[in-house]
Design goal:
The complex is a heterotrimer of chains A (about 200), B (about 130) and C (about 475). Chain A is mainly α and about 200 residues long. Chain A is about 75% helix and about 0% strand. Among the domains of chain A are: about 90 residues, no CATH class; about 40 residues. Classes of the chains: A mainly alpha (about 200), B mainly alpha (about 130), C mainly alpha (about 475).
Chain lengths: ~200, ~130, ~475
C-alpha cells in the first residue's frame, strides 16, 4: 500500500519538470567539465554530453525536430570538427606552456561573463514571452517546413549563401598555406615511406 | 501521450547507456575479482606497437585535411536539416499557392548555391586526399 | 557437391537460430506484455492496474534487450558460415552440434578475458567509448520497433512522428565512440583508425541521409509506420519500385482533376499496380487508357517521369546500401579496423568485455541498418505478393488454414496473426539484406583511403544530389501534367 501511495504521488508530480531539472543539472555539470578539464581533447568529448542533454531539453519542449537536429549537427558534427581541430594542435605543448591567465585578464573575462549572463537572463525572463496553453501539433515538422518555404523563403535561400561563404572560407583556410617549396617533396616522400599512415608528425 | 513517449525515449536512452556500463561493472570487476584474472604487468599494459617499445607519443599532431572534410560535412549536414522540413511541406505549400513548381524551384536554387560551393572546393583541390 | 551440403547445413542452422531468437523475444514479450496484465486484470485494484500498465510499457525495451545479445551471436555465426561457403571452406563446426554454439563459446571466452587498460591511456574515456558506441544501437532502433511489428498495440508508444530522422540522428552518434576510443587508447594504430573512421563516416553520411530524405519526400512523412503503411499491398507498391509514392500521387490526382476525361479519371483513381494488372490482362485497353487523356504529350511526359522516378529510387536504394556499409564499417569500407594495415584499428587495445561491447554493437548496427532498408524500401512486413495475385493463388484459403491451426494460440492471445506474418516477412527480408552484406564482404576488396574519400565526395554526393533534384521534379511532373 505504501508503494502504491508513492507511485501515485510520483505520477502526480510533473514528470516534465522533474526531467527538466535532471537534464539541466547534467548539462550544467558537464559544461563546467568542459571548461575545467585540463586535457583539451577530453573537454571536446565532454561537449558531446552537454549538447546531448540540451537535445533532451528540446525534446521536453516538444520540439522533436530541433532536438534531433541538435544531436545530429552539434553533438556529432560540430564536436567532431572541434575534436579534429584540437588534434591539429601540438600535444607536446600543453603541459609546459599552459599557464593561468593574468589577474587583469581574469577580471575582464569575468566581467564579460557576467554581462552575457545578465543579457541572456533579462531576455529569457517569462514576462517577455507570451505563453500559449494550446497543445502543440504532434507533427510540427510540417509547420516548420511551411514557415520555412513561404514566410521565410528568403532567409531559407540566404542560409544557403551563408553555407557557401563558410565553405569557401574553409577551403581558403585549409588550402591557402600550400607553398610548393623546392625540397619539400623529399620530405613528404620520406613521411609516406616510413610510416604509411596519415598523421604527419610535427617537425615544426 | 507525449509524456509517455518521452518516458519511453528516456527509458531507451537510459538502458542504452546503463546496460554496457552495468555489464562492465558486473563482469569486468566482479567476475574477474572472483576468478583472479586481473593481473596487469608492465609489459602487458604497454600500448601495442608490433611488440616493440612504442616510439614517441601516440598523440601526434594531425593533418589539416581531416578538418577540411569535417567542415564540408557540417555544411552538407545543415543543408539536409534544412531540406527535411521543406520535403514534408512542399506539397501543402504548392497547393496553397496554387503553383506546384514553387517548392521544387526553391529547393533547386538552395541546392545549386551549395553545389557551386562543392564545385569550388573540387576545383581548388580540397577534395583531393594527398 | 559438398558445397551443396554446406549450404543445406547453413539453412538448417539459420532456421534453428531464428526459432531460438524470435521464440525467446516472442515469449518474453508475451509474458510481460500480455500474460501478466491479463492475470492482473482479475484483481480490481489500482496497484494491479498500475503494475499491468508498467509491464506493458516495459515490453518494447525488454524485447530489444532480449533480442540484441542472442541476435548478435547468431549473426556472427551466420557470417562466418556464409563466408566459409563463399570461399569453399567448412567454417566453425566443432562447438556444439555442427558448430551451433561457436559464438556462445566465444562470448563466454570474451567475458572471462582479462580487461586491460593500456599504459598512458585516458581510463575514463577508454571505458566510456564502448558505451557511447553501443547506446545508439539500442535507442536508435526505437521507432523501427513499431514498424517491424506492424504497429502492434504494445509497440505503438515507441512510434515517433519524426521516426526516420530520429534513427538517422541516433545512428550518427557511434562514430564519436570510435574517435573517443581511438584517442583514449594511447596507441598510434587506434588513433589512425579512429580518425579514419570519422573521415569515412562523415563522407558517407550525406549520401545515406539524402537517399532516405528522397524517400521521405515521396512518402510525405518522416514517420516510419506511415511510410510502411503506404507501401502495403505487394511488391509493386514498395518504394524500391517507386510504386508506393505513385499510388499516393494518383489518388491525389483523382481528387483534384475529377472533371477530366472519364477513362483517365478511372485510371488515375486506380493504384499503380492495378494499372499494371490491366496492362497484363488487356494491353490494348491499358494503352488506350493511358493516351485517352486530352493532352497526350502530358501523358507521355508523365510516363517518362514515372520511369525516371523508378530509376532514381533504385539508385537511391543503392546509395543507401553503400552509405550504410561505410557507416557501420563493413568490408569494402572497413578502413577503421583494416587488420592488414592497422592491426585492429580503433579497438586494438580493447579486450574482454569492452571488446565484446564493440563487437555486439557492430553486429546490431548491421541488423538495424538492414531493417531500415527493409522498412524504407521493401515495405516492412508487407507480403511481396499483391492481393489480386494472392487471391488467384489461393492466399485467403492458406491464411484461414493457418489461422485455424493457430486458433488455440490466438485464443490465449499468444499469437496475433497480422504481427506474426509481418514479423516473418521482416525476418526473411532483413536476413536477405544481411546475407547480401556477407556476400559483399566475401567478394569485394578493401578501398584505399584516398579512393574511399574520392568515391564518397566526387561520386556519391553529386550523384545523391542529382537523384534528389530529379525526384523532386519527376514527381511534380507526374503530379501536374496527367490529365490537365
Amino acid at each position: 500500500m505504501e508503494q502504491f501511495e508513492m507511485l501515485k504521488a510520483l505520477a502526480e508530480t510533473n514528470v516534465e519538470s522533474f526531467m527538466f531539472y535532471i537534464l539541466a543539472t547534467i548539462s550544467i555539470l558537464l559544461a563546467y567539465g568542459v571548461i575545467l578539464d585540463r586535457t583539451i581533447i577530453r573537454s571536446g568529448f565532454i561537449l558531446i554530453g552537454v549538447f546531448g542533454s540540451i537535445c533532451g531539453l528540446f525534446l521536453l519542449l516538444q520540439a522533436q525536430f530541433l532536438a534531433l537536429a541538435q544531436l545530429m549537427i552539434y553533438a556529432v558534427g560540430i564536436t567532431l570538427v572541434v575534436v579534429i581541430a584540437l588534434m591539429l594542435t601540438n600535444p607536446r605543448m600543453e603541459k609546459s606552456q599552459l599557464s593561468t591567465a593574468a589577474p587583469a585578464n581574469q577580471l575582464g573575462a569575468f566581467m564579460v561573463a557576467v554581462g552575457l549572463f545578465m543579457t541572456i537572463y533579462l531576455s529569457v525572463r517569462p514576462e517577455n514571452w507570451t505563453l500559449s496553453s494550446e497543445p502543440l501539433d504532434m507533427n510540427n515538422v510540417q509547420v516548420l517546413g511551411r514557415a520555412l518555404t513561404t514566410d521565410y523563403s528568403l532567409p531559407f535561400e540566404f542560409a544557403s549563401v551563408l553555407l557557401l561563404a563558410a565553405l569557401i572560407g574553409a577551403v581558403m583556410l585549409a588550402k591557402a598555406e600550400k607553398p610548393p617549396k623546392p625540397g619539400e617533396e623529399d620530405f613528404e616522400y620520406s613521411v609516406v615511406e616510413d610510416s604509411a599512415a596519415e598523421p604527419v608528425a610535427s617537425k615544426r | 501521450m507525449y509524456q509517455l513517449q518521452l518516458a519511453q525515449i528516456a527509458l531507451f536512452v537510459l538502458m542504452g547507456f546503463a546496460l554496457p556500463a552495468l555489464g562492465m561493472i558486473l563482469l569486468a570487476w566482479i567476475l574477474q575479482l572472483m576468478f583472479g584474472y586481473h593481473r596487469p604487468s608492465k609489459t602487458k599494459i604497454q600500448p601495442y606497437e608490433c611488440g616493440m617499445k612504442p616510439l614517441q607519443e601516440a598523440h601526434v599532431q594531425f593533418d589539416i585535411r581531416y578538418y577540411l572534410y569535417a567542415l564540408l560535412f557540417i555544411l552538407f549536414d545543415i543543408e539536409i536539416v534544412f531540406i527535411i522540413p521543406w520535403a514534408l511541406a512542399t506539397d501543402q505549400v504548392g497547393k496553397a499557392l496554387n503553383f506546384k513548381m514553387f517548392g521544387p524551384i526553391e529547393v533547386t536554387i538552395f541546392l545549386s548555391i551549395l553545389v557551386v560551393g562543392l564545385a569550388y572546393a573540387w576545383k581548388k583541390g580540397a577534395l583531393e586526399w594527398e | 557437391m559438398r558445397n551443396g551440403a554446406e549450404i543445406l547445413k547453413l539453412g538448417t542452422l539459420t532456421i534453428t537460430w531464428w526459432c531460438i531468437i524470435f521464440g525467446a523475444v516472442w515469449i518474453a514479450c508475451y509474458l510481460v506484455g500480455v500474460a501478466i496484465p491479463m492475470l492482473l486484470s482479475s484483481y480490481d485494484s489500482d496497484a494491479a492496474r498500475i503494475t499491468a500498465e508498467t509491464c506493458r510499457a516495459l515490453t518494447p525495451i525488454l524485447s530489444v534487450l532480449v533480442f540484441i545479445p542472442i541476435n548478435a551471436m547468431f549473426m556472427v555465426l551466420f557470417e562466418r558460415r556464409g563466408l566459409a561457403i563463399f570461399t569453399v571452406r567448412l567454417g566453425p563446426n566443432r562447438v556444439g552440434p555442427d558448430g551451433y554454439l561457436q559464438t556462445a563459446a566465444d562470448a563466454v571466452k570474451l567475458l572471462f578475458k582479462e580487461d586491460i587498460t593500456p599504459h598512458g591511456a585516458d581510463a575514463f574515456m577508454f571505458t566510456l567509448a564502448p558505451i557511447v558506441f553501443f547506446a545508439p544501437s539500442i535507442f536508435g532502433a526505437m521507432p523501427l520497433l513499431a514498424a517491424v511489428t506492424n504497429y502492434h498495440e504494445l509497440f505503438q508508444i515507441v512510434n515517433l512522428p519524426t521516426g526516420i530522422f530520429f534513427i538517422l540522428a541516433a545512428s550518427s552518434v557511434p562514430v564519436v565512440g570510435i574517435v573517443m576510443g581511438g584517442w583514449a587508447s594511447n596507441n598510434k594504430y587506434s588513433l589512425v583508425g579512429g580518425l579514419r573512421s570519422a573521415a569515412q563516416a562523415i563522407s558517407y553520411e550525406i549520401p545515406l541521409v539524402l537517399s532516405l530524405v528522397t524517400i521521405c519526400l515521396l512518402a510525405g512523412s518522416l514517420d516510419v509506420v506511415e511510410i510502411m503503411k503506404q507501401q502495403a499491398g505487394g511488391i509493386l507498391n514498395w518504394n524500391i519500385l517507386g510504386g508506393g509514392a505513385l499510388r499516393g500521387l494518383d489518388s491525389a490526382l483523382a481528387l483534384k482533376f475529377s472533371n477530366s476525361a472519364p477513362a483517365l479519371q478511372e485510371l488515375s483513381a486506380k493504384s499503380f499496380d492495378q494499372v499494371l494488372k490491366t496492362a497484363y490482362s488487356d494491353p490494348a485497353a491499358a494503352a488506350l487508357g493511358l493516351v485517352a487523356g486530352q493532352d497526350s504529350m502530358a501523358t507521355i511526359a508523365s510516363i517518362i517521369a514515372v520511369v525516371v522516378l523508378m530509376a532514381c529510387v533504385l539508385i537511391a536504394a543503392g546509395l543507401y546500401m553503400t552509405g550504410a556499409c561505410a557507416e557501420i564499417n563493413r568490408i569494402p569500407f572497413d578502413l577503421p579496423e583494416a587488420e592488414s594495415e592497422l592491426v585492429s584499428g580503433y579497438n586494438t587495445e580493447y579486450s574482454g568485455i569492452k571488446f565484446a561491447i564493440f563487437f555486439l554493437a557492430e553486429f546490431t548496427n548491421l541488423f538495424v541498418v538492414a531493417s531500415i532498408f527493409v522498412v524504407m524500401f521493401l515495405g516492412g512486413g508487407d507480403c511481396p505478393v499483391p492481393a489480386w495475385l494472392g487471391n488467384m493463388l489461393g492466399g485467403p484459403q492458406m491464411a484461414s488454414a493457418i489461422n485455424q491451426v493457430l486458433s488455440p494460440l490466438i485464443a490465449i492471445k499468444f499469437v496475433d496473426p497480422p504481427t506474426l506474418f509481418a514479423a516473418i516477412w521482416v525476418i526473411l527480408k532483413v536476413y536477405g539484406i544481411v546475407f547480401f552484406a556477407v556476400l559483399v564482404r566475401g567478394t569485394l576488396p578493401r578501398f584505399r583511403i584516398d579512393q574511399l574519400m574520392d568515391f564518397g565526395w566526387k561520386r556519391l554526393i553529386p550523384l545523391s544530389l542529382i537523384v534528389f533534384v530529379l525526384v523532386v521534379f519527376a514527381r511534380e511532373f507526374v503530379n501536374v501534367h496527367v490529365g490537365s
